């Protein structure tokens, strides 16, 4: 095997994801063993690739929605499905089929410490700028008045609205709304992934996020489960990885989450572990996420985050699992969970056949825990890589 | 990177005639790959859906001209690159701070909290995407296609309509720019302690 220099090594590092020949891999590994500068480059690229590779996974229902909407737009021959406005009663009866399938959320706004669940009232006064009930494109920056709210397209948006219901339906793009609090009237924004009910606040909505500029909101699933207890001014909430909704009454889960005692959390953790062991990954994720949303000890947070990493791993989402393990390893390096997470990252990558990354993480483990609980296994795995190379 | 199913010629012909069922079949097979592709380009933002939609709408209009020289997957990716390129060239219209970038996170971001660098995977993702955003679109696209998506230089050259040398040059400069920015970022500096030597 011909030795290679730093320049060639860095070219190979860039090309690693595209695949290297056996000779190239061997030459790269040999150079990385001896050159600390290139090792750092490899580590940095690993981190960047992991960071860029981490992304929200979309549900099959969301994907179907994208496909359906694109076909409708592209073919421009299929009529719009029955208007939401016409099917409101079905929605109210708990149909919420589309929204529910997409892990919809209901957002209630808390104003001045009081929580209002606002029923959209009838709006007497006409809109300043009439909008059609059929979807209409708004170019970026264009502002219109709908009932008692100003609606501005943050980027090109397709919206329709119903004046009587004081409701805007957002089909695509992003809009910013400024609802006049003086009128004490509700306003509703519907997207395919959640519904926002507001009373006097300012916020931005797109297909998956709500960003609050004024006031405080909380995010609920349609069945009442609290997804985010308080979303304050300046904060953003994303539905992209919100856990699927479960059927529980509205206030109950929030109380349980925020008043949870360490013993309750321990029970939740045990339940989540059992769920994961039984292959109930989604349930385990929900339990772990619920723990992180409430009061918990540091040790319990570490364990909950480790569980989420294991859930991602069991789904085959290796990069997400590594990112989660990395957080646990860095934040909780003084706890056993931190040590376990650092080794688990290396072991997971090794099991996935990503030898260069695994080597990096296993070395990090040995550097930090030279006499750790997994030192022997880490050394054995590294020796195994070495043996395979020779 | 190609979707697992290779559509038969009759299906493609039906797509050219804008047959809805055929388009649906072909698009459904390629949608996960396309979403991942777009997400890698723009980061985990909400407009991924808009960009994927725009890609498919453009593809429907362009299907009659699809000659079949490249695979459908590569052809769709080429359209996606153009859609994303237009998006990246537009001025930033709004700052989006996606929250749930790592599986470990279920909490809202506290914008007032100080960044804790690599210790926080979520902020690491945000920062790296911010640095990637600063790279010229053509270089960024080539870098992500090769280094993150793992596509061979030849395929990237075909997708972006450039020579192999141009693609390699873009990747090289994207890396240089990215590393330099990361080294200047206090929160990320510990990720790249060494100076660039090549």
Structure explained in plain terms:
The complex is a heterodimer of chains A (390) and B (198). Chain A is of the alpha+beta class and 390 residues long. Chain A contains 14 helices and 13 strands. Chain A has 2 domains: 153 residues, Jelly Rolls (Sandwich), CATH 2.60.120; 136 residues, Tetratricopeptide repeat domain (Serine Threonine Protein Phosphatase 5, Tetratricopeptide repeat). In chain A, strands 1, 2, 3, 4, 5, 6, 7, 8, 9, 10, 11, 12 and 13 form a 13-stranded mixed beta sheet that branches. In chain A, helix 9 runs antiparallel to helix 10. About 19% of the residues of chain A have low confidence. The interface between A and B is large, with 82 and 76 residues.
In short:
Chain A has 390 residues and is an alpha+beta fold. Chain A is 46% helix and 19% strand. Chain B contains 8 helices and no strands.
CATH superfamily of the largest domain in chain B: RNA polymerase sigma factor, region 2, helix turn helix motif
Q: Look at the helices and sheets of chain B and give the structural class.
A: mainly alpha
Class by alpha and beta content of chain A: alpha+beta
The topology string of helices and strands of chain B comes to: HHHHHHHH
Proportion of strand residues of chain A: 15-25%
Q: Secondary-structure element order of chain A, as H and E?
A: HHHHHHEEEEEEEEEEEEEHHHHHHHH
- Percentage of residues in DSSP E strands of chain B: under 5%
Q: What is the CATH C-level name of the largest domain in chain A? A: Mainly Beta
The helix content of chain B is 55-70%
Shape of chain A: globular
Question: What is the average of the pLDDT values of chain B?
Answer: 74
Q: How many domains, in number, for the residues of chain B? A: 2
- CATH topology of the largest domain in chain A, by name, is Jelly Rolls
Indicate the mean pLDDT of chain A.
69
Helix content of chain A: 40-55%
CATH architecture classification name of the largest domain in chain B? Orthogonal Bundle
Strand elements of chain A, count: 13
Helical stretch count of chain B?
Answer: 8
